[in-house]
Amino acid sequence: MGKCVSLHHIYSYSLLYDKTITCPLGPWHRPSTTLALPAQRKQIVRPQYPRLSQRVNTLIGTDWVGNVCPGASAPFGMVQLSPDNGRAGWDYIAGYFYPDSTIAGFSHTHLSGTGAGDLYDISFLPVTLPALDDRLTRKPQAGKTGEEQAPIGIHARFSHATEVAKAGYYAVTLEPYDIRVELTATDRVGVQRYTFPEGCRLGLHHPQSGQGDELGPHHQ
User: Fold this and answer.
1) 8-state DSSP, 8
2) Short-list 208, 220, 219, 200, CA closest to 131
3) Which of 47-75 are b and which e, b meaning 16 or more Cβ less than 10 Å from the residue's Cβ?
4) What is the pLDDT of residues 115-129, one digit of tens each?
5) What confidence tens digit (pLDDT) does each residue in 11-34 have?
6) Are 40 and 81 in contact (CB under 8 A)?
7) C-alpha to C-alpha distance for 90 and 148, rounded to whole angstroms
8) How far from each other are the two terminal CA atoms of the chain, in whole angstroms?
9) Are 123 and 85 within 8 A, CB to CB?
10) Sign of the alpha-carbon dihedral angle for 4, 5, 6, 7
């Protein structure tokens, strides 16, 4: 591309004037021609723009009355994988409320941005044993209804500093278990991947049934 020369470049001429020739009518200019050297064509560098999906922040709308779930879903997909705080009330209508710091499970179906609470089906929560359980330790709080004070049961804590929320992908680290959870989805299938610490007793809790399975010790 850099060495291609067009006819326009090859057959471009410049006029040179010789003022040493004179005639009775006065000095005149004799034009001469000189072949211009071919110029190299500059390669056009076009800026590279990222895909628009890389600019999506799925945490937008998860605070106040946005009622948005931040998890992973495909366009027009059948599943919407997202974390659930496990609490009742209008703020938690989509399952997740940004100011909270607990996770009770990762379920495969959600209504996002509708202002109506439903679904939260097929939920799992990976833990290391013994797991956090507030059913025996939770104390009544003044100014809150019985529904708002209902215990979560087995759960995990988390920090927003460990969250990654993108279009089609969500990840977070569960504390105190040090388990990395990653969620993604296709049109009809939800995928959850757990990375456990080595040498721990592993458990998989099913929030909807209130039961769980011990998976045994984990070794690399």
Assistant:
1) H
2) 200
3) eeeeeeeeeeebbebbeeebbbbbbbbbe
4) 777 788 999 999 999
5) 333 333 344 444 444 554 455 555
6) no
7) 10
8) 53
9) no
10) negative
